Amino acid sequence: MNEIEILVVEDNADDLEMTLHALRKGKVANRIQIARDGAEALDFIFCEGAFAKRKLEAGPKVILLDLKLPKVDGKEVLKRLKGDPRTRKIPVVILTSSKEQNDLVESYHLGVNSYIVKPVSFELFVAAVQQLGMYWLLLNQPPVPE
Amino acid sequence: MQAEQQLKASLKEVDHLRAALDAHAIVAITDPQGKITYVNDKFCAISKYRRTELLGQDHRLINSGFHSKEFIRELWTTIAGGKVWKGEIKNRAKDGSFYWVDTTIVPFLNEDGKPRQYVAIRTEITDRKHNEATAARLAAIVQSSDDAIIGKDLNGIVTSWNKGAEKIFGYTSGEMVGASIMRLIPTDRQLEENHILNQIKQGASVEHFETLRQTKDGRTIDISLTVSPIKDVTGKVIGVSKVARDITERKNAEQKIHLLNTELEQRVIERTAQFEAANQELEAFSYSVSHDLRAPLRAVNGFAGMVMEEFAPQLPAEARRYLERIRNGGRQMGELIDDLLAFSRLNRQPLKGQQVDTAPLVRNTLEDLAPQREGRQIEILTGTLPACWGDPALLKQVWVNLISNAIKYTRGRAPARIEIGCETDNGENVYFVRDNGTGFDMQYAHKLFTVFQRLHLADDFEGTGVGLAIVQRVVHRHGGRVWAEAEEDRGAIFRFTLGKET
């Protein structure tokens, strides 16, 4: 069982640390992979570049994805993921600061599974991250791979 | 005997001649002094005097006063000198009407060569005189017209040329009458003239045909042509009348207007582009505020929260209190940013107007606000709420803000009373929300609707000062008004109207 459970794609160090804090504190997941930009996230998911030796089947089970990212932005990552039959079924949760209606609508069009605006309040933030992780990791049974 | 017979025959001949004369002409005879000694029936008929009224009178009786003394004197001098006088005279009949007669006066002389009587033979020409006057008047009109009025025959040879034509084309009447109209027509338009002539020959007219013509000094001018056939009494087309108007100035003006319009359109396009660019910038700014400003704020709150979570037991009470203050500040700033964004989004959102049922909208709002009412004793009275026209989502925001204010500012009242209703003022619906809360001092009423302006301490009543600014913005966008009345510690009433459908 060395599958990666959650991939957190987050460029903001503060948000990243809070997310990790919430996930660990809530005992949601232990095997967490971090990507700091969209390009790194894509390399990890599709086992390219620095992750060439990784197996695609080894996860992640859930991806927490920020929208505003350096190099390749979150929507592009989402598009690539949902456009590829090998990765289409991985649940993706957009975790973003943006309250813009356009981003939300567009993300749902691209096939996102959840869309969460990062709460400014610490308690709400922790609660949101924990509940999401729980839901997609434990309650939501992913379809059996074909 | 033969002489007598000859005389008889001769007299008979004279009688016949006189009868013929009487049948045709107006005849009068006067003595040398001018006294009338004979008038025929035609004279009586035209002058409307009876014969008895005329005999023994002189011609002053029918003097119209039209002719000068010189004219009359010349007449008398001529006939008194034994010469025949011819002329046209205007006379006045008994009923005051005038008539014209073409007159020949023949003096009959005695042996001394002196006139012994005058025989005046006249023909009535009143109609002819009238026609002449009418024709002269029409000619004057034609002459004085600014439009060129030109007569042509069917071969395009000019037969008449008025002052207007001289002015417009520069040729005098002398130069043009008898010349071909073709000299006015630019070489590339000569076919056009043939085409017009063909239409005219078939009896048709051409109206307001806009074309170009050449003037004597070589300028090309814009003209509007109306061409009609001239027909003789049998209806046969014998010539062409042409009215040409110089429309160069009008054409220039039209061109200028066209140019100005094009410029104006261009400017509108540019302004619209600028406006759109500004709007996009604002959009980008809002996005940036919503995204970038919230991130550091989350860090402030988050790490303060994490310190509390992980290290609270190790911290002195004062440090914990300070951390709490940091987190409070952070939370407030978060609300401010959210409200500010909501406020700025209001202006960018297009208004989606429709018929809105106010009563269910308010009922809905009250349900949404149930959490705020929890643990409070609040009487809510809802009156009749007529439907209105507007954007339901925006109007809901108005009701949410006004009612939640009423709930907030009645805190501490038991029971709190909130009255929601509508009154009619001059046929206009005035919606209101009244409460028995803390109210405010009316001298600050003008600050109520300004964004970030608050009339209460945040310690007493939390808030960012955006709610009423949003209310006012929405109401104004609907073409309505909003105002408030209050008394400190006695309550407040907020009223608003909405405009008509737009």
Walk me through the structure.
The complex is a heterodimer of chains A (146) and B (502). Chain A is built from five helices and five strands, in the order E-H-E-H-E-H-E-H-E-H. Chain A has 146 residues and is of the alpha/beta class. Chain A has one domain: 3-Layer(aba) Sandwich (Rossmann fold), CATH 3.40.50.2300. In chain A, strands 2-1-3-4-5 form a five-stranded parallel β-sheet, sandwiched between helices. In chain A, helix 1 crosses helix 5 and helix 2 packs parallel to helix 3. The longest helix of chain A is centred in the C-terminal third of the chain and has 18 residues. Chain A is globular and about 40 Å long. The model of chain A has no long low-confidence stretch (mean pLDDT 82). Chain B is an alpha+beta fold and 502 residues long. Chain B has four domains: 129 residues, Beta-Lactamase (2-Layer Sandwich), CATH 3.30.450; 102 residues, PAS domain (Beta-Lactamase); 95 residues; 145 residues, Heat Shock Protein 90 (2-Layer Sandwich). In chain B, strands 2-1-5-4-3 form a five-stranded antiparallel β-sheet, with helices on both faces. In chain B, strand 4 and strand 5 form a beta hairpin. In chain B, helix 9 runs antiparallel to helix 10 and helix 11 crosses helix 13. In chain B, 21% of the residues are buried. The chains are: A alpha/beta (146), B alpha+beta (502). At the A-B interface, helix 1 and helix 5 of A face helix 9 and helix 10 of B.
Task: Based on the model shown, name its key terms.
heterodimer, A: 146 residues, alpha/beta, Rossmann fold, 5 helices, 5 strands, 40% helix, 14% strand, globular, B: 502 residues, alpha+beta, Beta-Lactamase, 4 domains, five-stranded antiparallel beta sheet, 45% helix, elongated
